[in-house]
Amino acid sequence: MGHFMFKPFYGLMILMTLCSISAGSSALAATQAAQISSLAAQTYVLEKLRHNDLVFMGTTHKQPTILALMAELLPQLKAAGVTHLALEIASDQQNNIDRYLNRQAGPEKIVLHQAIDCSEYRHLLQILATLPQDQRPQVRAVDLPPDRYNGPADRDHWMADGLLRIFQENPHAKILAEMGSLHVLRELRWLPRIAALHRSIQSLVRAQRPDLLIFAIANIIPAADPSCDFGRLLGPLPGITALDVDRRFTGWNLGLTDCMAIEPAEPYELVDGVIVY
Questions:
Q1: pLDDT tier at 191 (50, 70, 90 boundaries)?
Q2: What is the rounded CA–CA span in Å between residue 69 and residue 63?
Q3: What tens digit of pLDDT does each residue of 105-143 get?
Q4: Is 21 part of a structural domain of the chain?
Q5: CATH number, position 86
Q6: Could you tell me which residues come within 8 angstroms of residue 64 by beta carbon, excluding any fewer than 6 positions away?
């Protein structure tokens, strides 16, 4: 009697165990797939760095997944030949950054713009501080200080000047520039009614240094930009997708420029590659 009473119980336990194993296997497979896609995205960025003088890493601010990829990249930059890491931090913070990286002051001295200030971004600075000096690219703060916002200079001109200054100091420099995606676009063709607005960082740099090889990558979070065709069509794929943007994507909406009063442009006219999360 007791033997038959416990059969359903043991059957349920076996079923639950099998379900648990299956769920664990699925979770493990998903984790492994995410790790593989992250490695592929890292390889993509590092390969572009090896073959270009300046690579723009355009980001959506305060997105943990993008900042996690950046965190994985930082220890590998020096081996890829990167001499400088340009960050969207006000240039008046350069001394505070240098003192922190040289362990002469704490990270709290570094003032970040509220648009980028988050624990994941500050973690990037912590990683840089832990790297030996010979394994860390020079870190440059290139953004316009807030107390100059109402002056004659605009942020893109200021950042372009900061990048050009690096190449003036080191003709063989190789730069990874991490900044918001709207700052990394190749060209800004403003509508005629607002034609007086500023040029893109890329066009300003190219005007002074047409010899430089430049590559711009836009990082895309589908939920943050639902109008982006790259996010809508590639976002559902497992893990992270990194690819070059060329004429195969004619007619696709990049989405980034929907908020800007510029002439319609094909994605390949704006960026050279995308990383879709």
A1: confident
A2: 10
A3: 999 999 999 999 999 999 999 999 999 999 999 999 999
A4: no
A5: 3.40.50.11550
A6: 120
Element (H, E) at 273: strand 273-276
Listed in sequence order, the residues at least 6 apart from 130 whose beta carbon sits closer than 8 Å to its beta carbon are none
Domain membership of residue 192 (yes or no) is yes
Give the number of domains in the chain.
Answer: 1
Split at pLDDT 50, 70, 90, the class of 2 is: very low
Q: Average pLDDT for residues 45-61, to the nearest whole number?
A: 98
Task: Tell me the C-alpha to C-alpha distance, in Å, between residue 139 and each of 50, 93, 96, 118, 152.
Answer: 18, 11, 11, 19, 26
Boundaries of domain holding 244: 30-276
Query: At 190, is the pLDDT very low, low, confident or very high (cuts 50, 70, 90)?
Result: confident
pTM, two decimal places: 0.86
**In the block, which residue shows the tokens 């989405």?**
255
Does residue 9 fall inside a structural domain?
A: no
97 within a domain of the structure (yes/no): yes
Helix axes 119-130, 94-101, angle to 10 degrees: 50
Residue 141 pairs in a beta bridge with 87
Distant-in-sequence, close-in-space partners of 135: CB < 8 Å, separation ≥ 6: 75, 78, 79
